[in-house]
Amino acid sequence: MTTALVTGAAGALGRAIVRRLTADGHRVAALDVEAKGLDGALPLETDLRDPAAVEAAFAETRARLGPVGILVNNAAVYPARPFLEVPLAEYDDVHAVNQRAYWLAAQLAAQQMSTQTSGRGGAIVNVASITMHGGWSDLAAYVATKGAAAALTRALARELGPEEIRVNCVSPGAFPTAAETIHPDPEAYDRMVLERQALQRRGKPEELAAVVSFLTGPDASFVTGQTIEVNGGWVMA
Ligand SMILES: NC(=O)c1ccc[n+]([C@@H]2O[C@H](COP(=O)([O-])OP(=O)(O)OC[C@H]3O[C@@H](n4cnc5c(N)ncnc54)[C@H](O)[C@@H]3O)[C@@H](O)[C@H]2O)c1
């Protein structure tokens, strides 16, 4: 049994990841700005934009559940606006949640996982997005942070490998979640997704969570620095 911390735990994909890691037998800390209704998990109501609050959440997790052995960096914000109209403050906000917090959480987790401190190692999964491959209009800041999540994955895998810390990335395609409400015509969006996917159905959050489970589990013990596309065959990278 390992202690797992999942960020963005109250979102559609985050909830599925929390459920799956709990079913895998882990003690799960569920971090979100509002962490309600996450039965069985330790709720951490934390704003990832606040580094001191993130540090406190990791300290609380360690005190209540033991040192973190699994981290899933899953939280994200995705305000839609044409590139030329994005205020720098909005870019900073997107970066603070989708990238700086991934960095800080990985650092805090690695300190608890390090073989030097725990003798155990650990597994980190960063959640990217299919949009990092082909771009997406009106989401430039979001897309940039998702490319950064994949690149950070490789850099940390290289640097933390000697500590037996594996770092991987999952890149979701289009899952039917609240995130889709940013697209104005849901039926047209649904048709567009199926035209691009090889599989002719929408993905389920559980199918993303299953890949996170694999990457954080013993069957992936020799897998690090990889990005796994979970998109029904939309982008084949
Ligand atoms: N849903 C999709 O189709 C899809 C596609 C590609 C990538 N993704 C990625 O999957 C991940 C989960 O997406 P989702 O669809 O579940 O989105 P979601 O919006 O349902 O969940 C994101 C969660 O992050 C939390 N969050 C946002 N800002 C925060 C902050 N400052 N502090 C703490 N928590 C904060 C939100 O409260 C929310 O619960 C994201 O990284 C997203 O980029 C999703």
Automatic annotation (TrEMBL):
Keywords of this entry: Oxidoreductase
Family in the record: Belongs to the short-chain dehydrogenases/reductases (SDR) family.
GO MF annotation: an example: oxidoreductase activity
Cited PROSITE patterns: ADH_SHORT
Superkingdom field: Bacteria
Organism annotation: Nonomuraea longispora
Protein name as catalogued: SDR family oxidoreductase
Pfam families, per the entry: adh_short_C2
Tagged with keyword Oxidoreductase: yes
Keyword Oxidoreductase belongs to the record: yes
InterPro entries: NAD(P)-bd_dom_sf, Sc_DH/Rdtase_CS, SDR_fam
